[in-house]
């Protein structure tokens, strides 16, 4: 075989082997033509060439001018993260709201007659979550999840006292008027546009993020408070206006009937944190899965392209396709 053909054959096979190696390491693209160009241009001698050391330049002397002295002014300090901001975002804060703790799988009690084995929008809530979200701190992990299983949904969840649907076939008449994002998320009558909405909850100088997954406490028609400027209409449990999950409670370090601030947030406002890690209902989890699937598809497409290039080369040179 002529020398040129041997070199070309070596380049194609070597490029394909490099692609397979990169695929195993998670590389997204491999360039066969780049490898061939480098081999022809530089040759073996280029690899042996070493750059000559360069002596470091002597530091330049600098002259610093002394700025004029200004009188010091005492400024009172405060923790800005703990101060309620009422107008800097798309959705305003609801301030000084009593929060009670609830959990998936909670049995009915005298103070809370509604069981939480299902939610306002999920008739199999406990099953879809993966089990009982035990609120006992001794039975919870450092990752804000219950001991014994990994939740299949986001453990950072809340309930607010408004339900936009009457049943699975119709919405409440005021829903399209009072819900800010109704038109953007409406699919059909009876399918909620509220489930999964992100909110921020602030307690002291800590802020937690969670998803709206149920309705309550106690009432489900208080749109004047949830979307307006009114105080909660509920009078039970010290006028509670939000239910928080054990994960939210533990992250904020608050107890039931504590007072907090909360507001709606867009997905783009949710920062990194434990609330982005788990759940088939979690926007960030589904996005990560989609990105991994797209990356895998791109790698597979590139490998298939390299196979075609390899086969075409061997067919053109009379050696036959090799797999």
Can you characterise this structure?
Keywords: Signal. Residues 49-72, 109-140 are annotated as: Disordered. Residues 1-24 form the signal peptide. Residues 49-61 have a biased composition (Low complexity). The chain has helices at 3-24, 32-48, 125-129, 175-178, 182-185, 223-226, 246-252, 283-316; strands at residues 94-101, 157-160, 165-167, 170-171, 198-203, 206-215, 242-244, 258-264. It contains eight helices and eight strands. It has 323 residues and is an alpha+beta fold. The chain has two domains: 3-42 and 289-316, no CATH class; 83-281, Barwin-like endoglucanases (Beta Barrel). Residues 1-16 and 19-88 have low confidence and may be disordered. It is elongated, with a radius of gyration of 30 Å.
Short description, anyone?
It contains eight helices and eight strands, in the order ααβαβββααββαβαβα. The protein has helices at 3-24, 32-48, 125-129, 175-178, 182-185, 223-226, 246-252, 283-316, and strands at residues 94-101, 157-160, 165-167, 170-171, 198-203, 206-215, 242-244, 258-264. It is elongated.
Instruction: Report the CATH superfamily of the largest domain.
Output: RlpA-like domain
Q: What Rg is obtained from the alpha carbons, in whole angstroms?
A: 30 Å
Strand order within the widest beta sheet? 1-7-2-6-5-8
Task: Give the count of structural domains.
Answer: 2
Structural class, from helix and strand content?
A: alpha+beta
Order of helices and strands: HHEHEEEHHEEHEHEH
| Helical proportion, percent range | 25-40%
Distance between the termini: 21 Å
Give start-end ranges of low-pLDDT stretches: 1-16, 19-88
Top CATH class of the largest domain: Mainly Beta
CATH topology of the largest domain: Barwin-like endoglucanases
Q: Sheet bearing the most strands, described?
A: 6 strands, mixed, barrel
């Amino acid at each position: 075989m002529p020398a040129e053909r041997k070199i070309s054959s070596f380049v194609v096979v070597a490029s394909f082997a490099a692609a397979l190696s990169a695929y195993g390491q998670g590389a997204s693209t491999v360039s066969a033509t780049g490898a061939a160009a480098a081999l022809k241009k530089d040759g073996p001698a280029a690899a042996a060439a070493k750059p000559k050391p360069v002596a470091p330049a002597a530091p330049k002397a600098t002259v610093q001018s002394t700025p004029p002295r200004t009188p010091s002014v005492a400024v009172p300090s405060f923790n800005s993260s703990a101060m309620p901001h009422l107008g800097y975002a798309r959705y305003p804060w609801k301030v000084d709201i009593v929060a009670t703790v609830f959990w998936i799988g909670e049995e009915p009690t005298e103070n809370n007659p509604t069981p939480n084995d299902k939610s306002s929008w999920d008739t199999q809530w406990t099953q879809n979550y993966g089990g009982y979200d035990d609120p006992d701190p001794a039975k919870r992990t450092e990752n804000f999840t219950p001991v014994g299983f990994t939740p299949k949904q986001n453990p950072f969840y809340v309930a607010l006292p408004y339900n936009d649907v009457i049943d699975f076939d119709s919405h409440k008449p005021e829903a399209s008027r009072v819900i800010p994002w109704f038109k953007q998320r409406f699919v059909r009558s009876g399918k909620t546009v509220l489930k999964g909405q992100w909110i921020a909850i602030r307690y002291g100088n800590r802020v937690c993020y969670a998803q709206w997954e149920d309705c309550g406490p106690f009432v489900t028609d208080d749109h004047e408070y949830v979307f307006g400027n009114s105080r909660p209409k509920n009078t039970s449990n010290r006028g509670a206006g939000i239910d928080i999950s054990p994960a939210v409670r533990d992250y904020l370090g608050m107890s039931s009937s504590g007072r907090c601030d909360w507001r709606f947030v867009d997905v783009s406002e949710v920062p990194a944190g434990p609330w982005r890690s788990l759940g088939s209902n979690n926007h960030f989890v589904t996005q990560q899965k989609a990105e991994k699937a797209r990356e895998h598809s791109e790698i597979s497409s590139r490998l298939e392209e390299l196979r075609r290039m390899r086969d075409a080369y061997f067919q053109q040179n009379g050696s036959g396709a090799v797999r």
